[in-house]
Specification:
Helix content is about 30%, strand content about 25%. α10 packs antiparallel against α11. It has 2 domains: about 110 residues, 2-Layer Sandwich (Uridine Diphospho-n-acetylenolpyruvylglucosamine Reductase, domain 3); about 200 residues, Vanillyl-alcohol Oxidase, Chain A, domain 3 (3-Layer(aba) Sandwich), CATH 3.40.462.10. The chain starts with a strand and ends in a 10-residue tail after the last helix. β6 and β7 form a beta hairpin. The chain has 14 helices and 20 strands. The protein is α+β, with helices and mostly antiparallel strands. An 8-stranded antiparallel sheet has the order 16-13-15-14-18-19-17-20, sandwiched between helices.
């Protein structure tokens, strides 16, 4: 059985393959075709949707985790698609390189993170997939395609595994750099009053706010010309594990058993926020350990809607026992065909709840707000959209649908999630 990180998605594939090379992927895809099986690829399981699930062949690329080549003078790095982000960051650091931007989870595979549109934050920085300069793609008939530009690469950068199996990718890295990260509590009203100015003032900015609370925890990261000063192992454990995870789990358990106390709990937790300053290598500033299981929805809104939509979401969540804060991040638009930030400056708003607590009703209420603004879902986070509801929100949706039909006419890589969220709208194309 395969199961995702949160334990909420599981399947029993007919066969699980663990190839070590592109040639072995080709062989597996051809055998699946001969057996009439669908093929899906599992990364690290950090998606909350059913995007991986299959009763056919499941490919794990965990054995395809090498850095093939890295050129510090050009910044071009070629890697196998199964490498985890933390391993990639360590390998790059040894070569004096880093990725321009990252999200806050570093245990994802690089291919899984980019395929679902994963992002960090920074109003002048694009999502992770924009750092891809080329991919090696195994298509439904076993053909190996090298994509290094044009609309095929723009389709493959965020493809949810619907075009084939990405086995290698070439990334654009930058010289190794140090970040100064500052976490600081501020009144929510103060943050909202100058939201655009604050978001644009730092290389990276985001904030967290609990429903029922009037305090926000802001996080800013700036590049500094200093040597990293990583915390000692005890301090790291105290801050990241004890406070950031064990204490959070205890709070969530109390809220789970006493949902009527959630407003009081959230306000108390928000008042416990304190200022924290770190100076460290960029990837270590970006990432945080995630030991508390949760489920999540994240929507990409037009940035200009941020000041209006954030209060709406907070107001809607006051009707439900939600013990996690919402997270607000800013991202520059990009040109991947199915990128949630495609073609527009974007504010991402993520809503979480503790595993075992009610999540569908609050998430549907938040999605209803998103629908009014034309919000697009993070492809790896929970949502209730279909291909028909999503097609009008992506200017190049039909281009992606045409490419998918050309590369996978028989739906070899289409499971229920792909059919529900992507393939259904292919009927809109002229035949």
């Amino acid at each position: 059985m395969w199961q995702n990180w949160s334990g909420e998605q599981a399947c029993v594939p007919a066969v699980i393959e663990r190839p070590r090379s592109t040639a072995e992927v080709v062989d597996a895809v051809q055998r699946a075709a001969a057996a009439g099986q669908t093929v899906r690829v599992a990364g690290a399981g950090h998606s909350f949707t059913d995007a991986v699930l299959t009763d056919g062949m499941l490919l794990s690329l965990d054995r395809m985790s090498r850095v093939i080549d890295a050129n510090p003078s050009t910044g071009r790095v070629r890697v196998q698609a199964g490498i985890r982000i933390h391993a990639l960051s360590e390998a790059l650091a040894r070569r004096g390189l880093a990725l321009e931007n990252l999200g806050d989870i570093n245990v994802q595979s690089i291919a899984g993170a980019t395929a679902t549109g994963t992002h960090g934050t920074g109003s002048k920085l694009r999502n992770l997939s924009s750092q891809i300069e080329g991919v090696e793609l195994v298509t439904a008939d076993g053909t190996v395609r090298s994509l290094d530009g044009g609309e095929l690469l723009r389709a493959a950068r965020v493809s949810i595994g619907a075009l084939g199996v990405i086995t290698e990718m070439t990334l654009r890295a930058v010289p190794l750099y140090t970040l100064r990260g500052v976490d600081e509590p501020r009144p929510l009203s103060e943050v909202m009053a100058s939201l655009d100015e604050i978001a644009d003032a730092s290389r990276h900015f985001e904030f967290y706010v609990f429903p029922h609370s009037d305090l926000a925890l802001t996080r800013t990261n700036e590049v500094v010309d200093e040597a990293p000063r990583p915390p000692g192992s005890m301090r790291r454990w105290f801050e990241d594990v004890l406070l950031g995870n064990h204490a959070l789990r205890a709070v969530c358990e109390i809220g789970k058993r006493n949902p009527e106390r959630v407003p009081q709990i959230n306000r108390k937790v928000a008042r416990s926020f304190t200022k924290r300053v770190r100076v460290d290598r960029s990837d270590r500033i970006f990432s945080s350990p995630r030991l508390v299981r949760f489920t999540e929805m994240e929507q990409a809104f037009p940035r200009e809607a941020a000041a209006e939509v954030i209060p709406e979401i907070l107001a809607a969540l006051e009707h439900y026992p939600v013990v996690f804060p919402i997270e607000v991040r800013f991202v520059r638009g990009d040109d991947a065909l199915l990128s949630p930030a495609g073609g527009r400056e974007t504010v991402y708003i993520a809503v979480h709840n503790f595993v075992g607590m009610p999540w569908e009703a609050p998430l549907r209420a938040v999605q209803a707000i998103g629908d009014r603004y034309g919000a697009r879902p993070h492809w790896g986070k929970r949502h209730f959209q279909t291909a028909e509801t999503l097609a009008p929100r992506y200017p190049e949706w039909e281009t992606f649908a045409r490419i998918r039909e050309e590369l996978d006419p028989d739906g070899r890589f289409a499971n229920d999630y792909v059919r529900r969220t992507i393939v259904g709208a292919s009927a809109l194309l002229p035949r």
